[in-house]
Design goal:
The complex is a heterodimer of chains A (617) and B (86).
Chain A lengths: L15 H24 L4 H22 L5 H6 L6 H28 L4 H25 L4 H8 L3 H33 L4 H19 L1 H31 L4 H4 L4 H10 L35 H16 L2 H7 L5 H36 L10 H8 L3 E3 L7 H4 E3 L4 H8 L4 H35 L9 H25 L4 H25 L5 H24 L14 H18 L5 H11 L6 H16 L1
Chain B lengths: L3 H33 L6 E2 L2 E2 H32 L6
Antiparallel strand pairs in B: 1-2
C-alpha cells in the first residue's frame, strides 16, 4: 500500500469579507507605515522596493498556503469559492495590467473614444453571465476545450479548440509581462528582463503549488489591492481639486473648466473619417483630443465594432469560463456573475474619472510654467524616460509634452505633489494585477495543454496524481514561454489585448453559445465553426499587419471578430443541417447541462471513472 | 433526471428570460454611437448627455440586467424544482 500526499480543501471563511478586511487593512497599514518612514527621511528607493515586493510576497505566500494535490483542488479550487471572492479574482484575472495600467492611459488620451473598452468589457461579462456561465458550471469542465470535447464527444474538436485558443492566451500573457516590466523597470531602473523573470518566478511558484486555488485566493488579494489603488488615487485627486471625494460623478463640477483649457490648447475637434480607428500606442504622445468630444479618434462604426469585439472576446475568455466552475453551485455562479458586474462597473466608472482628473491636473500644472522652467514631477518623468518634452517647441506646453500611455497612472499622484509612497502604490497595484492575470492565463493554458492535449485520451478519474503534475508542468511551461516571448516580441500590449479578444470571440463564442442553446448542432458543425471563425479572424489580423493589402470592408484586424462570428454561426448552421443529427447521448447531455440542479457532468464522470479502482481495492 | 414535461416549460421560461435580459442592453450598448451624436449640446449634471449615458447609463443598465437575470432565474429554478440549494 502506498501513501500519497493529500491536500485538504482550503477552509472557506464564513464571511469572505473577513479575508478582504484583513488584506485591505494590511495594505493600508503598509502604506501608512511607509508614509511615516518617508517623512522620517528613509531612502525612497528602499520604500519603493518594499511596496513592489508586498503584493509579490503576498501572492507567493497565498500560493504556498493553498497547496493542492488533487485535480478538483488544482483545477477547480475544490468548487468551494465564495461568489464575492471569486468575482474579485476573476476581475483581476481578466483585466490584469492591461486594465490597470494601459486602459487609464487610453482614457487619458482618447476620453470618450476609449469607451469601447469599458463598455465592451461590461457587455461581455453580461453575455457570459446569461449565455455561458451557468451552463459552464453545470458541465464542470476545467477548460473551454474540455467542455467542447465532452459536449460534442469529439477528441479532435477538443484538441483543435485547445490549439486555437493557445495563441490568444499567449498574447494576453505576453501583454501582461510587457506592461508590468515597462512600468516597474522604468521606475526602478531595472532591465525589463529582470522584472519579467521576477514576475515569472513568483507566478510559477504560486501556480505550480496551488493551481486554481492559488489563482483564486491570490488573485482575489491582487484584485483587491489593484482595485483599492484604482479607487483611492482619483478619490484623492477629486478631494484635492474640487473638495468632493466622489470622483466617479464629481468630475462634472470641473467639466466646463477642462473644456475651456482644452480649447485654449487648441485641441482638434474634427470628427474621424468613416472606419477610422485610432488606439493610443505605447510610444510617447501628446494630448490632442478633447476629453468629452465623441468620435474624433474613432468614427461611430469603428466605435460600435470595437465594443462588440471586446464584448464577444471577454464573453469567450477561457480564464472566465474556468472561473464559472469554481463555485459550489449554479446559483452561486450566477451570484458571482452579479458581483463581477458590480466590480467591473466600479472600474468602468472610475477609469474615465481617473483619466479626467489626471488630465485636469496636468493642464493646470503645465501652462503655469514657462518653456525653461518645467515642473519637478515632469522632470522626474523625463529622467525615468516616461515623458518627452520639446524645449524648442513654439506651441502651448500641453501640446509639446509627450506622455507614455503606460505611465499615466503615475501622473495624477505626481502632478498633485503627493508623497512618494502614494506614487509607489501604483506599482504595487500593477504587480498585483499582473500576477493575477498571468496566473489566470497560465491556468487556462496549463489546463488546456495537459487535460486537452497530453491527457485527452485518458479516462476521467484515472492517474489523478499524474494529472496534477502534468498540469503543474504545463502551467510552468506556459509562463516560461510567454515570459521569453515578451522579451522577444515587439508589439503594443493594448493591440495584443484587442487581437486576443478578436481571436477568442471569433473562434469559440458562436460554438459555446450554440452548444447550449441549439441542440441540433453536431461535431461537424462545431469543428467547421471553430476553424472558420479562427481562420477568418487570423487572416484579417495578418492582413492588417501587412498593410499592403486592402482590408475586407475596411475592417481592422483588431475588430475582426465582427465579421468572423456571423460567418462561423452561418457555417455551423449549414454544416450541422447538412450532416447527420447528433446522437441521442449528445442531446441528453445538452439537456442535462441546461438543468442547474445536481452534480456537475464532469464530477459525475470522474466519480464513475474511479468506481472500478475502488472495487479492486 | 427531470421529466420532459417539466423540462420544456422550464427551458421556455429560461429562454424568455435570456432574451429579455440581453435584448435591451445589447441594442443600447451597440447602438450607442449611432444615437450619441443626436445628444450633442445637451448637458445633464454638468456633463454632455451622451458622455453621461455612455459611462454611467451603460454600467447601471448592465448591472440591473445581470441582477434581474440572477434573481428571476433562481425563482424559475425554485418554481420548477430544479434549484441546487446553492
Amino acid at each position: 500500500m502506498t501513501m500519497t500526499a493529500v491536500s485538504r480543501p482550503v477552509p472557506v471563511p464564513a464571511a469572505p469579507g473577513a479575508y478582504f478586511a484583513v488584506l485591505a487593512s494590511s495594505f493600508v497599514a503598509l502604506v501608512l507605515l511607509l508614509l511615516i518612514f518617508d517623512q522620517l527621511g528613509t531612502n525612497s528607493t528602499q520604500l519603493t522596493w518594499i511596496m513592489v515586493a508586498f503584493p509579490a510576497a503576498l501572492f507567493a505566500i497565498i500560493g504556498a498556503v493553498c497547496f493542492s494535490n488533487t485535480t478538483a483542488g488544482w483545477h477547480a479550487c475544490d468548487r468551494l469559492c465564495p461568489p464575492a471572492l471569486g468575482a474579485a479574482s476573476t476581475l483581476a484575472g481578466i483585466l490584469g495590467c492591461t486594465g490597470f495600467v494601459a486602459l487609464p492611459g487610453a482614457f487619458f488620451f482618447l476620453g470618450f473614444d476609449a469607451l469601447p473598452f469599458s463598455t465592451g468589457i461590461i457587455l461581455g461579462l453580461l453575455l457570459h453571465a446569461v449565455l455561458i456561465a451557468p451552463f459552464a458550471r453545470k458541465d464542470g469542465a476545467f477548460t473551454v476545450a474540455g467542455y467542447i470535447g465532452r459536449r460534442f464527444e469529439s477528441r479532435t474538436l477538443r484538441l483543435a479548440a485547445a490549439m486555437v485558443l493557445t495563441l490568444p492566451c499567449l498574447l494576453l500573457m505576453i501583454g501582461e509581462f510587457k506592461i508590468a516590466s515597462f512600468l516597474i523597470g522604468h521606475v526602478l531602473h531595472r532591465e525589463p528582463s529582470v522584472v519579467v523573470m521576477a514576475l515569472a518566478a513568483v507566478s510559477t511558484f504560486a501556480v505550480v503549488l496551488s493551481g486554481m486555488r492559488g489563482a483564486v485566493w491570490g488573485g482575489a488579494a491582487g484584485g483587491l489591492i489593484a482595485l483599492l489603488v484604482m479607487l483611492a488615487l482619483p478619490m484623492l485627486g477629486a478631494l484635492l481639486m474640487i473638495n468632493l471625494p466622489l470622483p466617479q460623478i464629481s468630475y462634472s463640477l470641473a467639466a466646463s473648466e477642462t473644456i475651456r483649457l482644452e480649447a485654449l490648447a487648441g485641441m482638434d475637434t474634427h470628427r474621424a473619417a468613416v472606419m477610422v480607428m485610432t488606439l493610443p500606442g505605447a510610444a510617447p504622445a501628446a494630448l490632442v483630443k478633447p476629453f468629452m468630444q465623441a468620435f474624433v479618434a474613432n468614427d461611430r462604426a469603428s466605435f460600435a465594432l470595437l465594443t462588440l469585439t471586446i464584448a464577444l472576446g471577454v464573453a469567450s475568455m477561457p480564464a472566465l469560463f474556468a472561473r464559472a466552475g469554481v463555485s459550489p453551485s449554479v446559483a452561486s455562479t450566477r451570484r458571482m456573475s452579479v458581483w463581477l458586474m458590480c466590480l467591473a462597473g466600479a472600474v468602468a466608472l472610475t477609469l474615465p474619472a481617473a483619466a479626467f482628473f489626471t488630465r485636469l491636473a496636468v493642464m493646470h500644472a503645465l501652462p503655469s510654467y514657462g518653456q525653461t522652467a518645467i515642473p519637478p514631477w515632469l522632470d522626474l518623468l523625463g529622467q525615468l524616460q516616461l515623458a518627452v518634452f520639446d524645449q524648442e517647441a513654439a506651441t502651448a506646453p500641453v501640446a509639446s509634452v509627450h506622455f507614455t500611455r503606460d505611465s499615466i497612472n503615475l501622473l495624477l499622484p505626481m502632478a498633485l505633489g503627493l508623497p512618494r509612497p502614494l506614487i509607489d502604490i501604483v506599482l504595487a497595484g500593477a504587480v498585483a494585477a499582473a500576477l493575477a492575470a498571468i496566473s489566470a492565463e497560465a491556468m487556462s493554458l496549463g489546463g488546456m495543454w495537459s487535460e486537452d492535449g497530453v491527457l485527452a485520451w485518458t479516462k476521467a478519474g484515472d492517474i489523478e496524481g499524474f494529472r496534477v503534475h502534468t498540469g503543474r508542468a504545463m502551467a510552468a511551461a506556459a509562463i516560461a514561454l510567454s515570459a521569453w516571448l515578451s522579451l522577444r516580441v515587439k508589439a503594443d500590449p493594448l493591440t495584443l489585448f484587442t487581437w486576443a479578444m478578436a481571436l477568442f470571440g471569433s473562434s469559440v463564442f458562436a460554438l459555446l453559445v450554440m452548444s447550449v442553446w441549439w441542440k441540433r448542432i453536431n461535431q461537424w458543425g462545431g469543428l467547421a465553426a471553430l476553424l472558420t471563425g479562427s481562420i477568418a479572424a487570423l487572416t484579417q489580423i495578418i492582413l492588417s499587419l501587412n498593410g499592403s493589402m486592402p482590408l475586407l470592408f475596411g475592417v481592422s484586424g483588431a475588430v475582426a471578430s465582427v465579421l468572423a462570428v456571423p460567418l462561423s454561426i452561418a457555417i455551423a448552421l449549414a454544416v450541422s443541417l447538412a450532416t447527420p443529427v447528433p446522437e441521442h447521448r449528445m442531446v441528453e447531455l445538452a439537456r442535462d447541462i441546461r438543468m442547474p440542479g445536481g452534480e456537475t457532468v464532469h464530477d459525475r464522470e470522474f466519480r464513475i471513472g474511479r468506481i472500478p479502482k475502488r472495487a479492486e481495492a | 433526471m427531470t421529466e420532459a414535461t417539466q423540462r420544456k416549460p422550464y427551458w421556455r421560461q429560461t429562454k424568455m428570460l435570456m432574451v429579455s435580459s440581453l435584448l435591451l442592453p445589447c441594442i443600447l450598448l451597440i447602438g450607442l454611437p449611432f444615437w450619441a451624436t443626436r445628444l450633442d449640446g445637451v448637458m445633464v449634471l454638468g456633463l454632455p448627455a451622451a458622455f453621461l449615458l455612455a459611462v454611467h447609463g451603460v454600467v447601471i443598465l448592465a448591472i440591473a440586467a445581470a441582477a434581474r437575470f440572477a434573481v428571476t432565474q433562481e425563482q424559475i429554478d425554485r418554481w420548477h424544482g430544479t434549484n441546487d440549494n446553492g
